[in-house]
Amino acid sequence: MVRPKTLAAAIAALAAAAIPAMSGVASANAATTPYKITFVSALVNDSYFVTIKCGAEVEAKKLGVDLTWTGPTSNSAAQEIQTVTEESLTNPDGMIIAPFSNTGFSGVVSELMKKGVPVVASGEKLTPPDALTTFITDFKVGGNSLASTVTKLTGGTGTMAIVADTTGNTTDSDRFTGLIPILHKEDPNLTILSPQYANNSSATAATVTSALITGNPDLKLVYASTGPEAVGAASAIAAAGDTSKIKLISFDSSPPQITLLKEGKLAASIAQSPFEDGELTVKKVYEYLKAHPNGGPVKASSSVNYTPQYELTPADIHGKKALSYEYLTSCKNAPKSTV
Amino acid sequence: MNEATQTVETAPAPSNPPANALAIHPLRRILNSTATWVFGIDIILMLVFGVISPDGAFLTSQSFQALGLDAAEALLLATGIALLLGAGEIDLSLGSNLLLSSVVGAKLIVSFGAGSTGTATILGVLVCLAVGATVGVVNGLIVTRLRVASLIATLATLGIASGIANIVAGGSDITGLPQVLQTDFGIKTELGIPLPAFVAFAVWLITILLFKSTRYGMRLLALGSNRGAAQRSGLRVDLHLVLLFGLVGTFAGLAGFIDLTRFATTNLAGHTNDGLAAITAAVIGGTSLFGGRVSLAGVLSGTMLAVILQDGLIVIGLSPFYQLIAIGVVLVAAVSLDQHRRPGGLRSRLLR
User: Fold this and answer.
1) What pLDDT does B24 receive?
2) Is the pLDDT of residue A277 over 60?
3) Is the ipTM value over 0.85, yes or no?
4) Residue B262 within any structural domain of the chain
5) B246 — contact with chain A (CB < 8 Å)?
6) Whole-angstrom Cα distance, residue B325 to residue A132?
7) Which of A213, B54, B100, B324 could form a disulfide with B165 if both were Cys (CB 3.0 to 4.6 A apart)?
8) What is the pLDDT of residues A241-271, one digit of tens each?
9) What pLDDT is attached to residue A15?
10) Does B168 lie at the interface with A, CB-CB under 8 angstroms?
């Protein structure tokens, strides 16, 4: 019979052996086995995130990294946090998170970083800045850059409406919060309505837009903060028969938005560069792991790396540059490495 | 139209009219029904929004068209869910079913290319209906054969259908649908009525006729009010339920086709709450959550209440956060008013 003390000692010995392995640090065997990097996103069925995935996969292949891509199909930050927690139990060497909440990921990210697992944020900054670094579109710069387009399309008069995505998400709100004061200053005669939220639903965006058209006879412009909102707004404007009077601009370049641009139903849209984002985030984690073979707690930083963006219009939508900013629906047609 | 409200009671319940309720004058019955009350609230809200909105914009034909278009898909889903609730079942998967139908329909239409839009569209409608019906029948089989309560069964298929939709779509919304689908149907207005609203209204009307003029309605309510008695009286309960789930799924499939034509693309991330919204509309209109009472007239007034509130609050320029509060307050007020005036409702209970 095994004495309890012996059993306890054996368990302790096993645990001691297991702890370094569980800490997720890329230890001595990193040279022989590839780094395991896990990318957790949300809305994994959205073309923006599909494109990030394609970029991340291209870079992972180039660097010989074992990349896992996962996350919920909804935009639920709670589900995404749960996924990050579960994935952290699989002991990845590094993680990339495209967080759908600024604040909710704090606990799990700082825990990983303490254990020596570098975590890079993509598309949204964490508050407090618990990640190693952040790769993001400068949404404020992108939104602000629409000011001249707004002035051109409205002549600086009439009413402008904003159909936004969700509340509590600066990735979304930065697309218009900087633009509004600029427009107030440059176009004092333009009325800007408070944003309405459509939560990724084209049907809700259509309902909201048709109500805005009814309630604002001098509505001249609708600004949709992302793809499904642009699709819904375009349908409502067309249903009201007001396509010549009411113009539509948006953020992002999902396939339906590209179609709208080609049909002239969308006057402008700010495209991000998710492919490059995917490549750069994987590269960053890889480089960190290479430079820190002995692991140890990872130092968090508020450093931000901005990825390129570009204003697409019906005039240049068929151009070569525009093509490189179109979001992908599958990685079959993914470009080769860009970084 | 309020005659569509049928009640079969096997035991007297305090919240329902007494057994001789059917002897009451028809006009009084109509005036007393929840559907009429909610319809009254609809009218009052429309007048209020009409007065507050700039130049009475809420009461213009363009605004009515927008309301009709917004209500079309919701009316189809709520009609279906009312029938299921009447039979004592529920379907939470309607939103996913709508999505899956629209995705499969879109794939098929796109695969035909631009050349044969007519054939593609007809096949598209049929495929949407077929997919919807299939998901419905699967729900019915899970409930009747595997003996899983419909709440759990359809919660499971909610996820399954949404997963399959994402797989079929390749994880991204489908584009490349012929524009004529949108311009000639999805947002097209004939005689002042948007075509999708016309279709949804027609389906609703046919459902009322089916419910009123055939034994189907009575049997359905019997399933909901006393399943055991229905079985003992020789009703083929399981078959009835499977067919009913199938019918309701077909409604979701039709809503999926309408969604496709309205936006000329799919909306993978957008239909998660559709099923719940449909249940809310049906229950507000007077359909019981616990079976045995269906109000198809109330489905229309309940659906309109949601659409009027959502549109009206934006038209009058209320900011979105106050809208959430206002919608909640009006919903509670509408339902509690209805409870108060009912025999055996809160008021009579307090006076007892």
Assistant:
1) 65
2) yes
3) no
4) yes
5) no
6) 40
7) B100
8) 877 899 999 999 999 999 999 999 999 999 9
9) 47
10) no
Residue of B nearest to A240 (CA): B62
Look at residue A21 and give its three-state secondary structure: helix
Of B70, B267, B319, the CB nearest to A228: B267
Does B57 sit within 8 Å of A214, measured CB to CB? yes
Q: In terms of pLDDT, which residue wins out, B24 or A307?
A: A307
Position B79 in a domain: yes
Q: B180 is in which domain, residue-wise?
A: 35-45+56-339
Contact A232 B317 (CB under 8 A): no
Considering only CB atoms, B270 lies closest to which of A201, A210, A215, namely: A201
Please answer yes or no on whether A203 and B73 come within 8 Å at the CB atom: yes
Nearest to B187 by CA among A257, A267, A231, A248: A231
Q: What is the DSSP secondary-structure string of A148-198?
A: HHHHHHHTT-EEEEEEE--SS-HHHHHHHHTHHHHHHHH-TTEEEPPPEE-
DSSP string computed for B60-99: SHHHHHHHHHHHHHHHHHHHHHHHHHHTT---TTHHHHHH
Question: How many CB atoms within 10 Å of residue B49?
Answer: 25
* Domain assignment of residue B40, yes or no: yes
> Which of B121, B86, B78, B11 has its CA nearest to residue B252?
B78
Specify the DSSP class assigned to residue B59: G
Residues 87-116 in B contacting A (C-alpha not used; CB under 8 Å): none
Shortest Cα distance, chain B CAs vs residue A152, angstroms:
25
B69: nearest CB among A239, A259, A330: A239
> How many structural domains comprise chain B?
1
Cβ atoms within 10 Å of B35's Cβ, excluding its own: 25
pLDDT, tens digit, for every residue of B77-103? 999 999 999 889 999 999 999 999 999
Q: What is the mean pLDDT of residues A33-46?
A: 90
User: What is the biggest distance separating any 2 CA atoms in chain B, rounded to whole angstroms?
Assistant: 72
The per-residue pLDDT for range B119-177, each reduced to its tens digit, is 888 899 999 999 999 999 999 999 999 999 999 999 999 999 999 998 898 877 888 88
Residue with tokens 């825990």: A111
| Nearest partner of B180 among B132, B120, B128, judged by Cα | B120
For testing the chain B interface, which of A51, A165, A197, A202 should be mutated: the one with the most B CBs within 10 Å?
A202
Cβ A256 vs Cβ A232: under 8 Å: no
At residue B255's C-alpha, the angle toward residues A247 and B271, to 5°, is 70
Q: Are B247 and B80 in contact (CB under 8 A)?
A: yes
pLDDT value, residue A23: 43
| Residue B39 within a domain | yes
CATH number assigned to the domain comprising residue B175: 1.10.3470
The whole-angstrom distance between A216's CA and the closest CA on chain B is 7
